[in-house]
């Protein structure tokens, strides 16, 4: 019998799982909100500031790669819960002891290393529970929950920093993973731990060759990689961009940093609706259709936002909100497509490959963005040119994504997605 998302049990299960994701996500954007203050305090260049964020993504990449295979071997539920406890401890260590470039990069990287367990195993749990016709939307809710967590982290950091400093804000955000672990235990206490096929008796890396030879899924993964370049750069640098805009409008440095975080939190509300809208669109019109619509809209924002430096703050926030909406709108669709292009016992392995390529590209984006800022400022060009070229670099790195998606759309295997809607 097919499960229905409208059932009370499934609604409660999904609500609790999404609530745990909100809590886990609080530590994800705590650092980016504090970049305007940490740069002078820690003596960071823009490239170094971006590299600390990149260290998070590198740790997250390693985490997701390993966790995908472990989920196939030991079950998504078990991996989700065990990794959640490690994420709680590492977030607290970062908040307490990061005090400069080296310690910040090392400890934030370790925090990312233990944070992947709340992502792909959660998507696998959703795929196991819901039929394909509902899967895009439910995965959209899960990603929307993360966007809410990002927004709350920015809001908390922006509001608390003037009173308790950036470390006090970090400590409050670091409590999120602990709360998420408790909620996850409540959500999954009656959920069966599923180990697909004979995965528990083989090497956890045995499915890897089959995934790499699967051309349709590799096209979806490749498109996701270019999407991640754009999305991770956006998450890392949007608070600093809006803070710079506020500073240019006449606010003090502390006011600008706080305002940049709060305004970014408002913009991130757009990403919440984007996740749900993108997932729903993919269920109704097809996976590749939703990806093409969202990715092209996001590219338009990448190529224009930076050049709007000096425009009124309200207009920048409105564009940033739409940017967030579009940039995150196809994230859940890639995740859903992977579950429909490989056998169930290969899903974890496919997510691992996707994570390496996606977060590999994503990890480079904040650093490259910062290098563009440093190099253009060294030439003493205007702030509009510096930010314009930096945001344009994100767009330039993402243009291949829609092309790969279009190629996937034309393949006969695309009919396996969304009940034949490609």
Model description:
By secondary structure, the protein is mainly α. The protein has a single domain, classed as MFS general substrate transporter like domains (Growth Hormone, Chain: A), CATH 1.20.1250. Helices cover 79% and strands 0% of the residues. It has 16 helices and no strands. The protein has helices at residues 8-24, 30-42, 46-74, 76-97, 101-113, 120-129, 132-188, 208-212, 215-248, 253-285, 287-302, 313-329, 331-341, 347-378, 383-398, 400-409. Helix 6 (120-129) packs across helix 7 (132-188), helix 9 (215-248) runs antiparallel to helix 16 (400-409) and helix 11 (287-302) runs antiparallel to helix 16 (400-409). Mean pLDDT is 86; it is low at 1-6.
